Amino acid sequence: MNVKKILVSQPKPTSEKSPYFDLEKKYGVEIVFRPFIKVEGLTSKEFRQSKINVPDYTAIILTARTAIDHFFRLCKELRYNVPDTLKYFCVSETIAHYLQKYVVYRKRKIFYSETGLMEDLIPIIAKHHKETYLMPVSDVHNDKAVVLDNNKVKYVKAVMYRTVSNDFTPGEKFDYDMLVFFTPAGIKSYTTNFPDYMDRNVVIAAMGQTTLEAAAKAGLKVDVTITTETPSMASAIEQYLKKAKNHDDKSSAKAAKAAPATKKTATATAKPEVDEAAAAKRSAAAKKAAATRKAKAEAEKAAAAKRSAAAKKAAATRKAKAEAAKTK
Predict the structure, then answer these.
(1) Inter-residue contact 110 to 85 (CB < 8 Å)
(2) Alpha helices (H) in 178-232, listed in sequence order
């Protein structure tokens, strides 16, 4: 399929060095960043209903920047001053560095996985098994917690924010050739916003096991996803665009090569068509001439019959006059 406009269901990158911008320049496509979902933080009143007392925990497990934002937001709303002794265990270095927005990084005990995988954070957590762990999560969270459960890590999940559908307005334009999903919630939002989604001729790109499962459950065929050769969504999209471009180039070359032959064939078939038309014209003319001759012959026959009748009438009149004269 010829892709010209792509919707990436994520916020627009803040860096100009994003690979998505490179795709726009290289392949002449338009990329629009428009999340299908948005995050809403729980209020302090809602959070209190969970009966979780944040000061009871000595360590925090962080899997996303969103979790960091809402952890510190709720602590502020709860009037809890986060102690300097709190330990932070982050799933990646990027998330660990994001803590600088709220704490003095070099003065805190911050740990992170070198690979960005939860599995590689487990050995670090094991070295600090005496800590009491709290894990801020969304109401719909991914399978990172499963890794903790499988390794018998004692922790408590604290729902601090929720994921809701970022609904499309009735007049909002939706003319995309490719849709890119990163979460099951994004799939759900799309199918909810567009009940006719099965009839839409769009390329579906998705990454993450739970997202792929959600797409399959919704009946969506995923055309683009990450692989070992294309480990990022941007590289997976580029591979698809490259294949599509090569296919279009081959089709154009094939059409150009076939053009002269087509012209020759058209010329060859044109002559029989002209001969057939001329023959039909001659046949029509012949039929018209025959009809004219027939009409003329019938007219002459009618005139002869009229003359004969007149002659007979004249003869009969003369005979009658002659008979009358003899009687006198």
Answers:
(1) no
(2) 184-193, 209-217
Q: Is 184 among the domain residues?
A: no
Angle between helices 19-27 and 233-327 (to 10 degrees): 30
From residue 256, alpha-carbon distances to 2, 263, 265 in Å are 19, 11, 15
pLDDT of residue 264: 54
Residue type, 281: K
* Nearest residue to 241 via CA among 24, 32, 35: 24
How would you class 37 by CB atoms within 10 Å of its CB: exposed for 0-12, middle for 13-18, buried for 19 or more?
buried
Cβ neighbours around 38 below 10 Å, total: 14
CB atoms within 10 A of CB 135: 23
- Greatest pairwise CA separation for the chain in angstroms: 168
CATH number at residue 126: 3.40.50.10090
Q: What is the pLDDT of residues 265-312, one digit of tens each?
A: 555 555 555 566 666 666 666 667 656 666 666 766 676 667 767 767
CA dist list (Å): 148 to 152, 192, 300: 6, 32, 116
The tokens describing 178, both together, are 């490719």
Per the domain annotation, does 78 fall within a domain? yes
Q: What is the pLDDT of residue 252?
A: 67
Would you say residue 63 lies in a domain? Answer: yes
- Rounded to an integer, what distance in angstroms lies between the CA atom of residue 160 and that of residue 174? 32
Q: What is the pLDDT of residues 10-57, one digit of tens each?
A: 989 888 889 999 999 999 999 999 999 888 999 999 999 999 999 999
DSSP 139: S
Domain that holds residue 111: 39-149
